[in-house]
Specification:
FAD/NAD(P)-binding domain; 5-stranded parallel sheet; 7-stranded mixed sheet; 23% strand; alpha/beta; 28% helix; binds flavin-adenine dinucleotide; globular
């Protein structure tokens, strides 16, 4: 197993928007705030290059957040890593302004983030899947470093050492807990949607039968895409709810995604945090952008005008069983109102059933003896996203994107990335000063 003999100050697991914004924050602090920080950092990303939810980069799908909530503008609109600077560098500024669009396509926003990521090629290793993280004890008997094990696409293993760690590995695609999902190429989660479509359903003229399970934003986007791109396909959406419900993006409620709300939320009691999450669940979960709902309604109406029944939404259906036979998928549902059983046959089932973020990160398993846990089974975490550790453990571990329960609804989104990155850096700097007690590290903000 290869070990390059170097100890990094900070290793990041994953190089999605969260850790990318952290890299931007480091560069920005050094360039613009006069910080002088010799931070040796490395990000380990399993994908072969930067790409954001590539299986769902569907044409004509838009961001659900303003382009100004990019990787840095909130904190420093003058940074060279802003979305507007990217647009300027692409020679599209006039054209972009003329679009009068606050919500660019996801394809364009992905291109923006990939452009930013190119600036950090020297501190990212792509194609490296982190498989485990272990403590390394120093001569004084205290945990000094963390050993991060990775494998590359060829199965080659290596090990990296770091003084501090930031985990931002995103959510895990999830399926209904009560359903055995068959291992079949034609039953797949929405995160793989475009791959599977290109691989197995590449002839857009074929009369495929598609079934989508779920009633959130991904389901609505997939429904719209399949209806529009496969003119002869039969497309069904089955959902437990009555119908697609609009996301609450109204101005007053939307203030819940303001950066200062993180302080407010963090200070609440566990009961009040839970109440806040429940009360505002419809800002993000099992809801759909209202303009998309309108276009779906129009699509369904137009179909009625010409007397066709090629695509439809089936309400109140809870998935009970899935099986495959001779290339077909058999789905059994129960109608939650009538308790009747409904059987649907299709050529492919797309599970638009969301993502899971377990309270305890599987990669932190072997560090658990050193982590303080709380009543709900999760780890105790500081306001600045640092896990509380027990005595005798020197490394700091930060986690991003899994703290909705303590830091509020913005945590899994892009809403407060620049602030979060800056808060993590402040805390890291503090730890490096107090734990390592080194004069080498100075940062000026
Ligand atoms: C289709 C879709 C659209 C969305 N649109 C919006 C939107 O418009 N606005 C918004 O605010 N939010 C949106 N979100 C929410 C989304 O969670 C955030 O936009 C964002 O992706 C969070 O960034 P992240 O870096 O925390 O996680 P991710 O983007 O999931 O990135 C995590 C990275 O870690 C890597 N990784 C995971 N495990 C390992 C490992 N063991 N080793 C190495 N690398 C690993 C992954 O490959 C990935 O690149 C959307 C989500 C989806 C699924």
């Amino acid at each position: 197993m290869a070990f390059e003999g170097k100890v990094y100050d900070l290793i990041g697991v994953g190089f999605g928007p969260s850790n990318l914004s952290l890299a931007v924050a480091v560069a920005d602090e050094m360039e613009n705030a006069g910080a002088d920080w010799n931070l040796e950092m490395l990000f380990l990303e399993q994908k072969p290059g930067f790409v954001w939810h590539e299986g769902m980069l569907i044409k004509n799908t838009n961001m659900q957040i303003s382009f100004m909530k990019d990787l840095i503008t909130l904190r420093n609109p003058k940074s060279r890593f802003t979305f507007l600077n990217y647009i300027k560098e692409q020679n599209r500024l006039d054209e972009f302004i003329n679009l009068k669009e606050f919500y660019p396509t996801r394809i364009e926003f992905n291109d923006y983030m990939a452009w930013v990521a190119q600036h950090f090629e020297n501190c990212v290793r792509y194609g490296q899947t982190v498989t485990s993280i272990h403590p390394v004890t120093g001569q004084d008997g205290e945990v000094e470093y963390l050993e991060v094990s990775v494998t590359d696409a060829d199965g080659q293993a290596s090990v990296f050492r770091t003084r501090h760690l930031v985990v931002a590995s995103g959510g895990t695609p999830t399926f209904p807990a009560t359903v055995d999902v068959p291992q079949a190429d034609n039953v797949f989660h929405s995160h793989n949607f475009l791959y599977r479509l290109n691989q197995q359903f590449s002839n857009s003229e074929e009369p495929y039968r598609f079934l989508i399970v779920g009633g959130g934003q991904s389901s609505a986007e997939i429904f719209t895409h399949l209806v529009g791109s496969y003119p002869n396909a039969d497309v069904t959406v089955a959902m437990r709810a009555f119908n697609y419900k609009p996301a609450d993006g109204s101005e007053l409620v939307n203030q819940i995604f303001f950066p200062e709300m993180t302080d407010f939320f963090y200070e609440l009691s566990p009961e009040n945090r839970e109440k806040m999450l429940r009360a505002h669940y419809n800002t993000n979960y099992a809801v759909v952008d209202s303009s998309l709902i309108r276009s779906i309604y129009k699509m369904l109406y137009d179909q009625r005008v010409v007397g066709v029944d090629r695509f439809r939404i089936l309400s109140f259906l809870e998935l009970k069983e899935l099986s495959t036979q001779a290339g077909e998928v058999f789905a059994m549902f129960e109608n939650v109102m009538t308790r009747e059983t409904v059987q649907l046959q299709s050529d492919a089932v797309i599970m638009a059933t969301g993502y899971d973020r377990p309270k305890r990160h599987p990669l932190l398993k072997s560090l658990e003896p050193f982590l303080v846990t709380v009543e709900d089974g999760g780890y105790e975490i500081e306001r600045e996203y640092r896990l509380v550790t027990k005595a005798g453990f020197k490394p700091s571990i930060f986690v991003q994107g899994v703290n909705e329960g303590t830091h509020g609804l913005s945590d899994t989104l892009l809403s407060v990335l620049p602030y979060r990155a800056s808060e993590i850096l402040r805390s890291l700097h503090q730890q490096m000063r107090t734990v390592i007690n080194s004069d080498e590290v100075t940062i000026g903000w």
